[in-house]
Amino acid sequence: MTRRLLPVTAEKTRRPSPLQRRVLIVLAALGAKRPGPVATRDIERVLEQGGEAPVYGPNLRASCRRMEAAGWLRTLRAPNMQLAVELTDAGRALAAPLLADEQARVLAEQRATTVRVLPLVPHSQAGEADDRTVELDDRWHM
To answer: What does the CA dihedral 128, 129, 135, 140 come to, rounded to 10 degrees?
Structure first.
């Protein structure tokens, strides 16, 4: 049995790691509110507040270096030697769908946990019909 090797025609694209994905989402969200470089300490704080998993500074900075090597972000140094990063055009293109997916996930989670109070039917009307129309989110349901 012989094996055939297929020619490599396209360069292999890297997928971001879970930490890199979270950093890209944070940078995209912060960039939408206030464009410009973001200090890595601020990113670390935001990720800690998210509460998913602990983020250690050295891991975050190493991840940022790998993302810079991939061309997703640019690293800058402030005069006080504080490290800051900003998304490149390629990073923004990668982060935009990640941010949209995260926002959709959060919205779906909120909708799933929202409590809706249905209108109370007076006892005198309860015997008239079994089915009642109810309006939820501007749509009528039977």
So the answer is: -140
pLDDT digits (tens, 9 = 90+) for 88-121: 999 999 999 999 999 999 899 888 888 877 777 6
The residue extents of the domains of the chain are: 18-110
- CATH of span 18-110: 1.10.10.10
d(CA 61, CA 83): 9
Residue 114, both tokens: 């929202």
- pTM beyond 0.85: no
Query: Does 77 have pLDDT greater than 90?
Result: no
Strand order in the sheet with 73-77: 38-39, 83-87, 73-77
